[in-house]
Structure formats: structure tokens, C-alpha cells
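seq as requested:
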Amino acid sequence: MNASDTWKTPVDKDFLLTPHPIIGALTLAGFIAVLVSDRQADTGIRFAYLLFAAFSYFSALTALLLYQRYPEVVRWLLCFLLVAVVTGGLSVLQGMAFLSLLPIPIVVAILLVGFPSALVVTLTQSICLIFAYQHWPMGIGNLLIVQVSLWLTFFLLVVLYSSARRIADWSLYSTQRQQRLLEDARERMLDQEQILDELMHANRQLDLMNERLASARLMAEEAQKAKSVFAAKVSHEFRTPLNMIIGLTDLLIETPDVYGDALPAALLEDLQIVHRNCMHLTSMINDVLAISQMEAGRLSLHREWVNLEAEIESAIAVVAPLVEKKGLALHVRIPATLPDVYCDQTRIRQVILNLISNAARYTERGTIVVEVVINGPTITVSITDTGPGIDSQDLELIFEPFYQRTGNVWRENAGNGLGLAISRQFIELHGGRIWAESTPGSGSMFAFRLPVSPFPSPAASTARWINEEWMWVERTERPDIPQLPYRRRIVLCDETGELSSLAVESAQAVEIVNAENLKAAITAIDECPAHALILNTASMDRMWSAIDDARRNLPDTPIFSYTLPHSIDLARVYGVFKYLIKPITRADLRAVLAGLERAPARVLVVDDDRDFRSLLVRMLGALAPTLEVMEAQNGEQALHLLRDQAPDLIFLDIVMPNYDGWHFLDLKNCDSDISDIPVVIVSAQDPLGQALSRGTLVTTIGEGISKEMLLRCVCDLAELLTQPAPAPDQTPATTPHAEPA
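C-alpha cells:
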């Protein structure tokens, strides 16, 4: 079936005209005939008009009475009554006006019954005209003209009727189709409402689940913070008594005559065992603290350009005695063109030393090979040994914390199971990867890969892609390109290097462009606009000058300034000569005394722990018997001693009541008479593991912050600053505040 036939539906009944207008027309015609008869003088003509009127009234009344029971008969009856009226009038009255009424029965027939009745009516009228011609001679020419006109009227009406019915059929089909579409749309709306209701229910469930997940996450974060704080406090509490044990045993082992009589050899051997186990316990405490800090995200990297070859040689020198004792062959393969690596020297040195020492500990005979390979922007360091190898089930878990391998060899050389876990954390913080390959009985290979420079330079301008000779071609269709994830662009100008780790930790959330100085930061923002500029300076004075320069050159960029010097940098700012971490040994003290320009005659020990002061006095007395050692239990007492008897060197603890170490240094440096006395900090806190925090944050943009914008900033910052934060550390900090410039 053709597409055009799909809408052909029978609409004849709906399209046909009701008989009532025709009945009314007959009644009107009879009334007009009565009126016309009154004006006729001829009695015959008057009688003819009256007869026509009576016939019209009779036909109208008959059709009206029969229509309710015989509607189809009435339609045909009306058609022939009209034919009779017109032809009868034409024959009886012989008026030319009736010729103009001949098309009316055809029109009425096609409207009342349809095409068949119109054909019958036309044929009937044509025959009637022929009979009328016999009684009313009108001429053969006029008869032919009337006949032709009559049939032309018929065909014209048929064409119009067919077109009208086709339009009506199409309209009906369109209406029915729209009704079906409307019903389908209503059904789909009901389905959508049902789906929306189900989605609302699912959203309520998801909201409830999110609330529970948020609560569980908050509890987990709080537990993680509590664990980190606990580890930090426990490590501090452990280091102080361990320092006493290690210091006293070291003093007894190195200088047994300090107590008078010579100690028995068995006692010295036992003291060495105590000393060795205390050092092992100290190493374990440091490893546990490092693991907890990395899990809490508080461990930061202090990157600098490092000569990797020198670090490998330094680690080999430490392990060399064990290698020589076992008679192992050690081969080092380092390319002559090895570039410097931008990394944390202390952390990478610890990784290299850990891997090489493990290879030396677990290899009884054979060879150890240390190899460095340059792979484009990365460097791979591998340590291969001929030891017992590692089983596949152990190889999958070897980098997990506290994991202990099985076997006699591993039990004999058992460690604490933290070295490889810490090494993996250090390498991953640098954006690298560490792995192991091993075959039982054939040795093992441990390797790690580091990027030479993990922070790429700012991208060049897009102008490099433009060529003036290219012709512009308009696209005819939209490109099908996947939507890339949107990341905010932040330029970081870090003069101290303390915030550089943000580039690794937040690489997925934002795009961080590192700049060595403010000039490079301004150039990077000019080439490609950024959402914000972060300035990190070592001092407040430098911060204000940097902010002024940035505001002048970047009027439309929000500027955030933060002074975040590290504890070691702060120690240098305060004029600290050395930073020692408990437990300390005689070797540490010997190095401090040897590093001074002149040998000290008087030393001041400032610590609230009486036992540690006594230990330090004994150790210093053993190194320099003529050295005068003074003691102070807090910063206030130490200041009085400094002004009365100025010493040549100060050993200072950080965590003390009343005046802590940083406050003491503030007051000391303000006094010109005692500000030049060198200070050695002796603390149980590792400055490299402290959380990075500072009390001052400055925000500004262009000409400044308006009152309306200030309220928005205050609300947003207040909500952010009131969220739970890690436990505070014992680093010097100003009063916490945020300063909108």
C-alpha cells in the first residue's frame, strides 16, 4: 500500500450535509412563490406559483416527517424533489431564471448523498431538459449550451468534492494520528513520572547512604589523625628514654674508664647487645613514624637537584664492610652522562641504602650489581643479587608494612618489615614506581624508576600552532571530540620549596605550574591565564614586597601568599648552628664540637629533662674533660644564665614549659650581647616529618577586595578553616589569622 493511501478512510457520512438546510430552502422557496403570485395579474401564472408553493411546502413537510425513520430515503427524495421543482418550474412557468437554478440540485445531491446521486440527478435533469424543449422551444443551440453547462457543472463539482473529501480524509487521519501520539505521549509521561518517583526514592536512599558514608569517612579520618598523633607522641616519648639508654651504653662502651675501675669483658659485651637492640628499636620507631606521617599526608618532600651517583656511592660505602666480610662481588654500572635528579635527597638516599643493605644482608655468596639506566625523562636504578630469591606468594606482599617472609634465611636476618613499605611510599611520593622480580634460588632484582624533573615547564603559547599561510576552511559538521576533564590552573611561586609537593599530591584535582621566582610566574600567567597565583616566601618582609609586585603585574589574578619556611630553615633564620635528633651519640657531639671555629670553654645545656641533662654533661665531659657545662631546665632560667655567664655554645631543647625553644631563640636574638652565641637544637622531633603549617594567609586581587567581596571571602574561609585539621606541631607560628590585603 502506498504511503498516500494510509490516510484514506471513509468519511462520507461525516462529510455529507444534513437535509435540514434543504428543507428550509424548500420552505423559503414556497414562501417566495406565494409572494410572487400576489403580484401576478395573469390568473394562470398566479395559480402556477401557488401550485409551486404548495408543492414546496408539501415536500419540506414530508421530508421533515420521514427523516427520523428513513434518513437515506429522505436524502434521495429531496434530490428528486429539487429536480422536480426546477424542471417543473422551467416547463410550467417557462422562465429563463430557472435555467440558473439547474446546478442547485446537482450541488444538493452531491452534498446530501454523494457522487452517485449527483450523477443520477444530472442525468435526470438532462433528460427533463430534452422533454422541456418539446413544450418550450428554446432553440437547439441554447439546449446544447445548457446541457454542456449542466455536465461541466457536474464534473467540476465532482473534482471539488473529491479534493474536499481527500482533504477531509487526510485531516481525519492526521487528527486520529495526533490523538494516538497524544495517548502515547501521555503513557510515556506516566512512565516518566513513575521513573521519576523511583529516582526520587533512589536519591533518598543515596542521600542516606552518602550521609552514612560521610559519617564513616569522618570517623576513619579522625581515627587516622588520632593514630598519627599517637605515633608522633609515642615516638617522642620513646626517643627520650632511648636516648638515655643509648647515650649511657655508648659512653660505657667507648670510655669505660670514666667510672673508675675497668668493666668486665662480659659486661661490655652485654652492653653492646643492649646498644645494638636500642638502635634497632630507634630505627623501628622512626619507620613507624614515617609510615604514619605518609598515611596522614603530612610527610612533605624537600626537593633539590641531587647527584644520584654520589648517593649510590655513599650507600655502597656504608654497606661495604658487610660486603667485604661476606666476600661478595659488588659491581656498579652508572652511565657517564647521568643527569642530576630533582628529588628529596634524604628520602632517595634512604631508599638506595635500604635496597643495597637488603641485598648484602640476604646474599651469602655471589654478586651484587647496582645499575642505573637512563630512559628518556626517567632514570631506573636496579639492585640485583644472587641470594635465595623470593617465592611468588611473598613477592606479591613484600611491600606491605610489617610483612615478614618465611624461610630460614629470612628469619636469621629478620628486620621489622617496614623498609620496603617506606621505600615504596617515598618513590610514589616522587611520582615514580618501585617493583621486584625474583626466582627462588636464583636471586632477586629490586628496581625503582624516578622522573628526572617531575614538574614540567609551563606550556608554550598556542601561537606556535598558527601559520599565516594557512587558509581558513569552514567546518561543515561539529567535531566528535570527547569532553576532557576540566582542571583549574594554578601558578605556584615557591621560593622555599616547601609547597612543591602540592604538584604531586593535587595533580588530579588541579593543574599546578611551578615557577622558580615571581618573574617566571608572571610570564607563565601572561602566556596562559590562571585561576590563582600562590606565593610562598621565607619571611613576612619578603611576602609584602612580592605581593606588591604581583598586584601591579597581574591585576586580574587572585593572589594568595603564604609564609611557610621549614623547621630547618627556621632554625637557620634563628641562627641555629646544628639540628640534632634524639637519640644522639658521642659521634654527633664530636662532630658539633669539631665544626665550631674555636673550641668552646663553656657550654649551656637547656632541657626540662634532668636525666638527659645529666647524660649530656657526662658525654661532653668524656669528649672534653676541661669543658665547663652549665644546666638550665627552661628558657627563662637559660636567659638569666646567658646574661650572667655567656657560654660559647648552647644545646637547646624545643619542647619545654614556659618558654619553648623557639620563644627562647626569639628573645635571645633580640639581645645584641648574646645573639651571636651558636645554638645546637637537640630535639626528639624530626623536622623533616613535621606537618607544614603557618599562621598567616594573605589574599588579594588587583586594586584590593571590596566590602561585598570581603563578606563572601570571610564566609567561605570560615567554613574551610573550621573543618577538622591535623594535630598541631611544635614549630614556631604567629597568631593564626588571614589578612585580606
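The longest strand covers residues 367-375.
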